[in-house]
Amino acid sequence: MDDLQKKMRDLIDRLNAAAKAYYVDGQEIMSNYEYDALYDELEALEKSSGIHMSDSPTLKVGYEVLSELPKEHHESPMLSLDKTKEPETLRDFLGDKKGILSWKMDGLTVVLTYEKGELQKAVTRGNGEVGEIVTQNAKVFKNIPLKIPFKGRLIIRGEAVIHYSDFEKVNEQIPELDAKYKNPRNLCSGSVRQLDPHVTAERNVRFYAFSLVEAEEVDFKDSVRVQMEWLKSTGFDVVAYKETDRERILSDIEEFEKKVAVNDFPSDGLVLMFDDIAYGISLGRTAKFPRNAMAFKWKDETAETILRRIEWSASRTGLINPIAVFDTVELEGTSVSRASLHNISYIKSLKLGIGDRINVFKANMIIPQIADNLTNSDNIRIPDACPVCSGNTRINDDNGVLTLYCINESCPAKHIKRFAHFVSRDALNIEGLSEATIERFVQRHFLKSLPDLFHLHEHGEEIMQMEGFGEKSYQKLLQAVEKSRKTRLYRLIYGLGISGIGLSGARAVSALFSDPKEIKTADETSLLSIDGFGEVLAKAFTGYFQKEENITEYDALLKELDIEDESDENSTQDAGEFIKGKVFVITGSLYAYENRSQLKEYIEDRGGKVSGSVSSKTDYLINNDSESSSSKNKKAKELGVKIVTEEEFHNLVKNGDMM
Asked: Which of 456, 512, 488 is nearest to 561 (CA)?
C-alpha cells in the first residue's frame, strides 16, 4: 500500500471511529471542527486519486442504527446535503433561480406519515436507508398535531429538537456533572429513541417540518414556499425560512447569523433549496447528495491562544473530566478561557501539551472547543492521583474511548450527597447550597470535609468568579452559613448521616445527652434505653464514632457551631404525657416550625400520631387560622374536633388540656 492509500486509510478509520463514538455511543473523541477538516482532506485525496474505499464516510449517508426499536426502510433514501462554508459558493449554487433559505436545525430528523387526517407513523432518519419507528414517542412531542384537516396521504420530514431552555432545565435536575447531557442534540436523540414515551414527554421535544415528501392531489404551484405555507396552515410548525435570490442571499445569510446567539433552538448552519420543485428534481442526485439543495455551515471564528493548564474535575461517579484552561480570547462577542476536553481520547487526538499554541472556536457559535493544535507537543501527563482526594486513578477503555476514574471509594467527590444531606433543611439548613453547587465546590477543592462548609469565605474571590455567582449571591451564601452556626444538637446528629438515624432518632439521642461532647462516647447500653432504639441502630451509632476520622470531624464541627440548649424543650415531662396516644392533623402555614415535617417529628417523638385528614379519631387540628373556612376546619367543627393554633398547642404541651 503506497503512502497515499495509507493516508486515506488513516483518515477513514479516524472519521468512522469518531462517527461511531458520536452517533452510537454518545461520546465525543474529536471536535466538529477537526472532523470537518479531516473529511475535507479525505474528500480532496479521493478526488485527486480517483480512489474511493468501500467504508469511506464520503460514500455513506449515516451510521448504522443500533437500538431495540423496530426498524423500517424509508420509501426513498434520505440523503445528506453537500455543504460549504463560503457564502459566495452558496450564491453561485443558486445562480439566477429563487431559493428558500432556512435554519439547519441540530436535532434528530424524523419522517411523519399521516393517513385520513391522523398520524400513523413516525420514523427516524437512521442511516438514511433504514430508520427506527418512534410513533408512540412522536405522539407526545410538544407541538405535533395528531390530527390534521387534510385527509389524504401526507409524508413530511422535519427536525425533532430540544430548545436550550428545556435542555438546561433537564441538566439542572442532574447533579452529577459527568451525567449531564453534553448538548441538546444528544439529549434529543436519546429522548426521541426512548422505549418509554413518558420520558420523551417530559423532555419537551418539538418538531419543525422542513420538507414535504408527498401530499395526495394538492397543487403546490411547483413551489417549496407554497408547500411551507400549506404545512403551516395544516397545523405544523415549520423551520423559519426566507425567500431569497442571488442579489439578496449574502445579506440574508448575515441576517440569519445575527440571530444565532439569541435563538433558543440549536442550529448548525443553514439550508438553501431551490424554490422551483421541478427544476430541483431535474438536477438529479449523486450517490450521496441531492442536487436541489446545499447546506451552509458557519465559518467558525477562531482565535489563537496558549494552553496554560488542564484542570481535572472529579465527579461522584468517579469519572475525572479534563478541562482546558487557556489565555482569554474574544469569540463571537464573549470572553472565553475554558473548554471541555471530554476524555483522554479527545486529548490524544489533539496531541495537546502545556504551552502549546492552539486555535479555539465556538461550535455552532455557542460551545467553546479547541479547533486544532499548532504545536502538537503531545506531552500531557495523565494524573495518577485524583485531584480531590489524591487517591489512585485508573484509565478505563469504554468501547475504544479512554476515560479517567478515581478508584478511592472515600473520595469526597463521591460523597456529594453527604454534604447535601448535612446542609439540608432538617439538618443545618444552609440555603443556596444545591447538590450541583456542592459538587462544583468539591471539584475546586473548597470542600473536603464537613467543617470546610464554614470556611467558604476563604475562597471568596474564586467563588464570585464562578458561573452563577456574583457579589450578591456570594454574600447571601455567607449569611446562610453564619445563620446555620446556631443550631440544635439533634440537627447536627441528623446531619452527620449516620446509618439508620433519622430525624426522630436524632431527637431521641439529643434528649438523652445534654452535652454534645458526650455523644461521641455514647455506649450501646445507653442508646438501647431509648424507646425504638434496637441493636442495629445502637451499633450503627457507636460504630460511627469508633472511626478516628469521624471523631476528628465531629470535634471540628463543634468548634464551628453554637449548639443551643434543648433542656427546656426536652425536660418537660408534660410534653410526652400530653401528646402520647393522641392524633393530630396539621394544616395551613406554620410560624414556630419551619415546616409541617418538623412539627410532625416533634409530635411523633413524643408518642403522638399525625394524620393527613380529619376524622372521628382526630383529637386536635392544628391550624393558625382557626376561623378559616377550609374543608379541614369545617370537618373538625362537624365532628367536634378541637382546633388550636401553634401557640395554643404549646400551651397545651406545657399545661395539659385546660381548654
From this structure: 488
Percent of the chain with pLDDT over 90: 38
Residue 313 confidence (pLDDT): 82
Whether 142 sits among the annotated catalytic residues: the reply is no
Q: Is the dihedral of CA 340, 342, 344, 349 positive or negative?
A: negative
- CA 17/CA 402 separation, integer angstroms: 13
Distance, in Å, from the CA atom of 364 to the CA atom of 342, rounded to the nearest integer, reads: 17
Domains of the chain: 3-49 (1.10.287.610), 71-296 (3.30.470.30), 303-406 (2.40.50.140), 412-484 (1.10.150.20), 487-567 (1.10.150.20), 573-655 (3.40.50.10190)
Q: What pLDDT, on a 0 to 100 scale, did the predictor assign at position 9?
A: 85
* 3-class secondary structure, 251: helix
Of these ranges, 27-31, 371-375, 463-467, the one predicted with the greatest mean pLDDT is 371-375
Average pLDDT taken over every residue of the chain: 85
Three-class DSSP category at 40 = helix
* Calpha distance 4→282 (Å, rounded): 37
Q: Which triple of cell numbers denotes residue 52?
A: 474511493
pLDDT band per the 50, 70, 90 thresholds, residue 62: low
Residue 39: how many other CB atoms lie within 10 Å: 18
Q: 391: which 3 cell numbers? A: 487517591
Instruction: Give the percent of the chain with pLDDT over 70.
Output: 92
Compute the C-alpha angle 608/612/618, nearest 5°. Answer: 55
Which segments within 125-238 are labelled E, that is strand?
130-132, 154-161, 206-215
Straight-line distance from the first to the last Cα atom of the chain, in angstroms, rounded to the nearest whole number: 100
Closest CA to 152 of 114, 112, 111, 209: 114
Q: Catalytic pick from 20, 83, 104, 362?
A: 104
The neighbouring-strand residues paired with 294 are 272
Helices (H) and strands (E) in the chain, counts: 25, 24
